[in-house]
Write a structure and sequence with these properties.
Elements lengths: L2 H9 L6 H13 L4 H14 L3 H13 L14 E5 L7 H10 L5 E5 L9 H5 L11 H11 L1 E5 L6 H11 L7 H14 L4 E8 L8 H17 L3 E8 L7 E3 L1 H11 L5 H19 L3 H13 L2 H12 L12 E5 L4 E6 L1 H13 L13 E4 L6 E2 L4 E6 L7 H5 L2 E4 L9 E5 L1
Parallel strand pairs: 1-4, 2-3, 4-5
Antiparallel strand pairs: 5-13, 6-9, 7-11, 8-10, 8-12, 9-11
Bound molecules: uracil (URA).
Uracil (URA) binds next to helix 9.
Length: 423
């Protein structure tokens, strides 16, 4: 077998055998296949897709590249959640402690930024001292003790995904159903949870740009889950405008704190309660409505925030030291209704300010970002603030930022946040 022949086979739209896929993936993990050949292979998959059988085989090979975590020493059902990634998507940081405050165990391995979408681990690292790398035993011990842990994918869980994910981030090979499905499901299956709730983002600021692709991705992940006997539910959610107001790392943590104190943006709150009610209802075997009510109570009575403080303390973070740069305010040139906010472009600008990576080894700047002052449907006056831009030294292109906002004289109907639930 040789890698050029396999890349060429996929380039010619042919179906690969499990052995051929394993040759590429295992060879890359061992270092026998260089980045440039793996990039070409990934691009061939992006362009020519994979069948369900190839995707399940790819997932299986990625699972077998490392160890499977045994969570059986944790009491009760362990529920995991994952998002396909969006702009301003800080959901996990609010959701995990809130669900844990209802007595449900959340053992969460999260990722770093991918393409223009931010990553939970990059965000959490803007809290001084917060440790995202722990051993498997510490991870399990913390979940048993306080009910929640959020760590980065340990070196041994789907290491093939870890290495390929970092390469995809910088080679324009993010937007592919088999690559996303196998990446997410290999980690989720290997990290041992009993049930998995997936937030599949749809729209300009997401990897899936339309409902048809988002449904196909959801169905592919549910099929992979069924292959491993795991309960998988997918919530398709709107990613036309950023989630909440903050897009960056440190400023998103500040928004999570506001949300857990009951003062967060409506869209983020609604998403957390919807995903959370699925997680809690599975774990406690109760109705979604009962679960929703309990979560809402814990958001309002501060129990969710207390659990968040426990989580940060357990992982040695200092909640009073969060990196946020000074900001400048950008004002509207005209009055009117905000009819569109270009989430993709905002994600891209924030990434270029330093919040994401252009090369695999880039060190990111946790303090930069953009805090919106408006959401779609709001009315702005001329000279009223549209957005604050947090940065310390780079020049910013004000016109490029203004172009992210479409302002018109007539208000347009806003599309719903929760688009569909596929169970
Ligand atoms: N999240 C992942 O873990 N992998 C992807 O490919 C996309 C989102």
């Amino acid at each position: 077998m040789n890698s050029i022949a396999i890349i060429t086979k996929k380039k010619n739209k042919e179906e690969l055998t499990k052995e051929e896929i394993a040759f590429m993936i295992n060879g890359y993990v061992k270092g026998d296949i260089p980045d440039y050949q793996m990039s070409a292979f990934l691009m061939a998959i992006v362009c020519n897709d994979m069948t369900e059988r190839e995707t399940i085989d790819l997932t299986d090979i990625m699972i077998q590249s490392g160890e499977r975590i045994d969570l059986s020493s944790i009491d009760g059902k362990v529920i995991d959640k994952h998002s396909t990634g969006g702009i301003g998507d800080k959901t996990t940081i609010v959701l995990a402690p809130l669900v844990a405050s209802c007595g449900v165990k959340v053992a969460k391995m999260s990722g770093r930024g991918l393409g223009v979408t931010g990553g939970t681990i990059d965000k959490l690292e803007s809290i001084a001292g917060f440790e995202v790398e722990t051993t498997k035993d510490q991870f399990v011990e913390q979940v048993n003790k306080i009910g929640v842990s959020i760590i980065s994918q340990t070196g041994n869980v789907a290491p093939a995904d870890k290495k390929i994910y970092a390469l995809r981030d910088v080679t324009g090979t993010t937007e592919s159903i088999p690559l996303i499905a196998s990446s997410i499901m290999s980690k989720k299956i290997a990290s041992g949870a009993d049930a998995i709730i997936l937030d599949v983002k749809v729209g300009a600021g997401a990897l899936m740009k339309n409902m048809e692709d988002a449904r196909a991705l959801a169905k592919r992940m549910i099929a992979i889950g069924a292959h491993y006997n795991k309960c998988v539910k997918c919530v398709l959610t709107n990613m036309e405008e950023p989630l909440g107001y903050a897009v960056g790392n440190g400023i998103e943590i500040m928004e999570c704190i506001d949300t857990l104190k009951g003062n967060g943006p409506e869209d983020l709150k609604q998403l957390v309660l919807t995903l959370g009610s699925l997680m809690v209802s599975i774990a406690k075997d109760c109705s979604k409505e009962e679960a929703y009510q309990e979560l809402e109570e814990n958001l309002n009575n501060g129990k969710g925030y207390e659990k968040f403080e426990e989580l940060i303390e357990a992982q040695h973070g200092d909640i009073h030291q969060i990196e946020v740069d000074p900001c400048v305010s950008i004002k509207s040139k005209k009055a009117g209704f905000i009819t569109h906010i270009d989430a993709y472009q905002i994600g891209d600008i924030v990434k270029r300010l330093g919040a994401g990576r252009m090369h695999k080894d880039d060190i990111i700047d946790h303090g930069v970002g953009m805090t919106l002052a408006v959401k779609v449907g709001d009315f702005v006056l001329e000279n009223e603030e549209l957005v604050k831009v947090h940065f310390d030294s780079q020049d910013i292109n004000i016109q490029e930022i203004l172009d992210c906002f479409t302002i018109e004289q007539d208000v347009k109907e806003k599309s719903p946040l929760i688009l569909e639930i596929i169970e």
